[in-house]
Amino acid sequence: MTSPTCLWRRLLARVLVLALAGGAFPADCLAGGTPPPPGESTPTLAASIQKAAVMESAKMTKARASSSVAAQDPGQPNTDLGSKSFFKSPAGIVALILVGVGTGYALYSTSNDRIKSPAK
Amino acid sequence: MKRLTVFVALLLLVGAVATQAQTLTGTIAGKVTDEQGGVLPGVTVTLTGRMGSQTTVTDEKGEYRFVGLTPGTFEVRAELSGFTPRVERNLDVGIARTLNIPFTLRVGGLAETVEVVANASTIDTKTTAADNSLSQELLANIPINMGNFNAATSVMNYSPGINNGSAFGGDSSYGNALLIDGVDTRDPDAGSAWVFYNYNIIEEVQVGGVGAPAEYGGFSGAVVNTITKSGGNRYSGLFEYRNTGKSLAGDNVSEEYLDLNPSLGSPSVMTSLNDFTVQLGGPFSKDKAFWWFSVQRYAFERDPAGPLKKATEVSPRYNGKVTFNLTPNDQLTTSFQYDNYNVTGRTAWIPGYAANDSQTVRQDSPEAVWNFQYRKLFGSNSFLEAKYSGYWGYYYLDPVTQESSRYDGETGAYSGGAGTYYYADRDRNQVNVSYSTFASVYGEHNFKFGLEIERSGVHSQYGYANDVYYYDYGGPYLAYGYSYDIRGKNKRESYYAQDQWKIGRLTANLGIRLDHIRGYSPDLQETMYTPDWAWGPRLGATFDVTGRGTSVVRASWGRYYEGASFYPYYKAVGGFTPWASYEVVAPGQLELFDETIVGGDWAVSSGSKHYSLDETTIGFEQQLRRDLKFAVTGIWRKWDNFVGAVIQGSTWTPFTRNLPDPDNPTSTKPYTLYRWANRTDTPDTVAGNYAGFEYRDPNGNLLGTADPSRNYKGVMFVLTKTLSNRWQGQFSYVYSEAEGNMSNSSVGLGNASFRNPNNALVNAYGTMEQNRPHEFKLMGGYTVPKVEVAVNAYYRAISGAPYTPVARVSGSVLNWTGSLDINLEPRGSQRMEMLHQFDLRVEKEFKVDVHRFGVYFDIANLFNNDTVVGVQTRLPSRSITYSDPDTGEAKDADVKYKSPTSLIAPIQMTWGVRWSF
Description:
Structural class of chain A: mainly alpha
Helix content of chain A: 55-70%
Helix content of chain B: under 10%
Order of helices and strands of chain A: HHHH
Shape of chain B: globular
Low-confidence stretches of chain B: 1-21
Strand content of chain B: over 45%
Number of strands of chain B: 60
Distance between the termini of chain A: 60 Å
Largest sheet of chain B: 22 strands, antiparallel, barrel
Number of strands of chain A: 0
Oligomer: heterodimer
Mean pLDDT of chain B: 88
Distance between the termini of chain B: 33 Å
Largest interface: A-B, 43 and 55 residues
């Protein structure tokens, strides 16, 4: 599984790449390029990088969430079956009661219903 | 090291190594390539299942492997920096199966996960063994447990090619290896089922034997390999209760059948059933230790067929399994089972159609099964497994009353008590060691070497209540006494070596197995049964036709040997009393007038060969879709080295006797029979390979030669759809022919049917009793959306059983120890009607988070068919005593040849509730 540290390093790398790309972009293109549509302010390079970083971060989070889900048992929704606190939940208590009753009755039956051969 | 730790954690959950069949785990392996086909080393591959995750890295060839997987469902994820990760989900790993899961990674930007669900093959392209496994989804949902509380034998009969316990022509009771978590649980006496267990403790069951590799042995029919559930990182539970009663049963006996056989008027009906199970499992410590246990108690009452009114069975059962990760490379798994059977209403000396409730025996039978397995990893390609397993148990049958049984030859009536007792003590201890390793030398090798050591004990006692039973004739007349107290110890060492050698698309399955079997008498302190060392070569090959693992051609040849059993030498160990004949001179006063050792002294010939099976298979398997596959397999089997008993030095006088004509039962036709000419010389019986034994008359003329044989050929079609889009199913059709003169109906080794030439030479050859030429089986289920109601069904149409018309000839005519049924036509010349049966389960399921609640109704024989499954085979007729259903009075009925004697069970519904998480 990809570690969170690795994901953030990638994000930082992307941001740096974007920053470098923006810096390498010919100033004269920026200066003399196509004017923005009416009503829309010209985005600054810093704002673009920040926006890109936010988008990347959102995707990383989604990827981490996907990875986390994938790491869990397939097909299982959120559940506390992996925690010992399960036996403190209502379902866990009922399970323990059923186990106790069932086992107790089986043990009772083991002696009460036993057909003992006179040869043994 | 860290990856190994995770890897080992998964291995902890592996069930114990098999004794007769080794592998209880599966493998997922594959290759990772880029879009240009170049291999990708260093790819991180993560396997996730019920018990957690483990990770490995592809090697320089881009390959990865996960071994020792407990059967179940997994997902595999492959990722490498600069590539888009890919995930394969819902991968079902079965026992001894290898799933090939390749990945093709494409260059990608961010960590965007792509799920691939279409391309992976679900076919094992390396093994030559036919896969007849039943998935957990099928087992848990189809109406598979309809009053049979032994999952091993009932599950087996749902598989293609197996009916009544007879697998591909094999012996119905004794020919199958029945394993639970690798422990051979058969009775060492003759090989029948000994340990019973419930279907809902099963994680996965593999029914196979066809094309099996060298690690499988000790069978001549099939191998039923069951893995029980295990704990995991997540708590799991199952709580189930089942119930039925007389009001939920029907009646399928028509007036027509009653006219033919009035004893059918009282069919066997389950009058009550209460069956509950509680199961729980989880971790002691995450990834380090796991536990699982199950407790079941069932109790049922049955109104048996005939005069009996009540038979009961109560059985508490306990199962548990614990796994420990001692170190990253060392794992220990332990499991146990304890149960006892408490049964009333079993019949004994007096047959079921005549016995009343006081003329039955009671059964006391506890047993314990244990299993300890240790696994050691050497790197990621090799591992060692060592296991100690076994069981202890007994079943004792005691008559309800100590009154002797009586049979009146004049009236045909039975009286007195059940008449006999039988005590059986059994134990079995086994040690298995195996070493598995993968290697890449001139292709890829999957080597496995193993050693098995078995010691199993038999102690059987039998006798008559008050030492005798009475043969009256309108009044006290004669009495007979007989008993035995015998012990035996089976000893076996087995060695095997096998290799799955893959070169490109071709995989050669090469193996050799060597069994060293002996039978020892503790009382005589002598080894009685010493067959030759049994060499069992296994040769096979598979070819991946397309290279994508979706089309496979298989072929194999192998020699298999039956397991060790007491039967070949049981009569040579001493402990038998003579057959004593008494005259009843006055009530309670007997005068001995004859004592005979039945069959003379018994010996076992040395240098015999153990019972064997030669099998050839050719097959083709095709994956049609990810969830759909088709397989066709041709199977040829020839049994050999039959071990039986003949009377050395016996001579027989042929004579002609008129017996009923099957084509015209009111008339007769002549048959040549044989009378024992030198019985008073008491020649000895010898058990061994009796093929070629010559039957001669007193002048030395050859009458005939023993030529035991059994041959089977069949073709099996299986279409399997795994669970997807709410439905699953399996359809199979098997056409087969089985012929010979060695019955495959509960005969076992050491049988004595060839002692008498009237059995060996008179119409002995023909169709085997368990042969069913046409067998259709269809099982499946569909969950109706929105209402979430699951409908599961099992339908089968199977050719009727063959039977042979016979005439009973008294022992005095043949100078034999008792009456014999003489075949009037070749064996199996007649056949009963085809069986059609449809069983249904309807279940309403409720899901709350991870909790599943269900209420279900099982209906056996939904259409209440009245198929005849037993007929009266004796000409011209036979007297059957039955209980008048209205008055309870014992009556006799003259039941003619071909009249029905038993029908399939009538319609019966069972309801149940269950909760699982």
